Structures are given as structure tokens and as C-alpha cells.
Amino acid sequence: MHAGVPDGRARRPPWPSEGGAAALWPPAPGLRRPVLPRSRVREATAAVLALGLLLWLAGRGAGDARGADRYDFRLPEGAVAAAPAGTRPSPGTGASAGPLGTPPPAPAAGTWEYLGLQDDGASPVAYDPCRAVHWVLRPDDAPAGAEELVAGAVAEVAAATGLTFVHDGSTDERVTRDRPAFQPARYGDRWAPVLVSFEPPAANPDVGGGIAARGGSDAVRAGGPAVYVTGSVLVDADWAADRAATPEGRGAVSAVLVHELAHVVGLGHVEDAGELMYAHNDGQRALGPGDRAGLARLGRGACEPDL
């Protein structure tokens, strides 16, 4: 976690599956451990594990709006695809000789996290600033005015990172957990664009139950640093349709989109309610100082013409 340290190291929060299991009966000094039949021990262990799973799932579903837990569709923490020939575009497709934009100055205050780090343990995984980040919108199931809301959120993240975003229009592609980063039959000889899709929980159970949206990106490497090349934003269409009916609700949808697009470019959740990347809905509608600090640094990623 960064807190007013412009060049500090990012702390990667643990995944829910990490951590040790607590002992069922820690023996106190001078006391004898109770002895139970093995069948009873197995039953008790299973009950404790089941209760723990239910409590964890309940915690994941608490709240709405920006309350997405860590993005489920991106590669597992620490895993980066090697992008061998045949699974990536022709090297250099869309690459420019230098960065297409300039990130704004990064505030020295605030709290931010990166979703992924390079091998040095400090530099964040980011998009290539020498290429445009293309994006498409799936209009099916989207609320009225969705394209305007998404375009506004994209513009806000573009300004905060200095990255160049290009809207490639609409698509009929849905968000899936195994979405290929390279889809030449659909998008041509280039990395697939970032996909923004509004889908009801009945069609995509990865939203709903308190999860308003999810967002993130896939990273690849070609002998150099890891680079994000495409990503997805999935929004609960039922939740968005209900909120988008009022100006205040549209503000909530816009904040959700900015939050998820910040995940897409590489920001993680923080435990600071004053930042938009706080994991739970608390009425925050604007990027905080730590959000802006992290996003400005993510706009200074490495150019990778070999990808």
C-alpha cells in the first residue's frame, strides 16, 4: 500500500484462499486435548469449513455499487501468459515510436494499490503507453444512455493516466472468464479491445448478489516486462437499469464504471474510504488523491513494440 510515498513499493493483498488454517482445539498448558472418534472429527472439520465458506461468500456479496471483489476473469496473481506465436498479433501492431500521451503529475498523498507487479517487486504491470487502448461496448441489455456513461468514464481514466483510448463501436461479444486476448476472426490482427458489457445476473452469475460490476485485464510478455493487452468490464444490467433512471443513480453508475476501468488499467482495491478504489460502496463518486497518484504512475508503463 502506498500512503504519501510517491515511489514506494506496492503491497499485493492476499487472495481469499491464502492463509493458514486455525487449529480446532489449541491445547492449554496442563490440560488434556479431548479425544473424539475420527468420524466426529471429520464431521466437525467439515462443518467449520462449510461455515467459513458461507461467511466468506456473504462478505463478498455485502454492499452494492463499486463492491466488486478482486476481478475473477484475469490471470491468477503472478501468472503472465507468454504469448507464443499464433496466440498474439503480428509484433508491433499499432505501436508508435513513443508514448501517445503524457500522464498528469502524480499527487504525493493518498493510498493506492497495483493489481500486478513486475519482477522487481515495485514497478506496476500496465498498458503500453505507445499504443492506443481500444474498447468496444456490447449494447444489448445496457441501460439508456450507457454509451455516454461509458465514454465519460473512459475519458476520466484516460485523463488520469495519459493513456489514449479509442472507441471501436459496438460488439455482440459477452464477457467470459476464458476470453481470448487475441481474436483475429472477430477483431483482426490485433489484441482484442477492452470489452464493456452490461449483463443481467440471470445470464452471467459473476454479477448480482451485491456485486454491481467487475473489471480487470490480462497481461502478456514477449521477453520483456509484463504488459496488459486487453481486459473486460462486466456490469450488472439489472442494477444499472434501476440506477440509471435518476440523475443521482447515473452518478453511481458512472462511479462504478470509473472504478472498474481503473481495475482494467491496473489499480487494485484499498482500505481507504476516501478513495474511489475502496472496495465497498460508501457514496464516493470522484477519484481520490491516491487513485490519481496510482493512475498517473500506471500511465508511465513500458513501451513493448515486440508484442
Question: What attributes does this structure have?
Answer:
307 residues; alpha/beta; Collagenase (Catalytic Domain); six-stranded mixed beta sheet; two-stranded antiparallel ribbon; 6 helices; 8 strands; 14% strand; globular; disordered N terminus
Question: What does the model show?
Answer:
- The structure is a single chain.
- This protein has 307 residues and is an alpha/beta fold.
- The protein has one domain (64-298): Collagenase (Catalytic Domain), CATH 3.40.390.10.
- Helices cover 26% and strands 14% of the residues.
- It is built from 6 helices and 8 strands, in the order βαβββαβαβββααα.
- Strands 3, 4, 5, 6, 7 and 8 form a 6-stranded mixed β-sheet that branches.
- α2 packs across α5.
- It is globular, with a radius of gyration of 21 Å.
- The chain starts with a strand and ends in a 9-residue tail after the last helix.
- Residues 1-30, 82-112 are annotated as: Disordered.
- This is Matrixin.
- One of its GO terms (molecular function) is zinc ion binding.
- Keywords: Hydrolase, Metal-binding, Protease, Zinc.
- Residues 236-282 form the Peptidase M10 metallopeptidase domain.
Low-confidence stretches: 3-38, 52-79
Oligomer: single chain
Could you tell me the radius of gyration in angstroms?
A: 21 Å
- Percent of sequence in beta strands: 5-15%
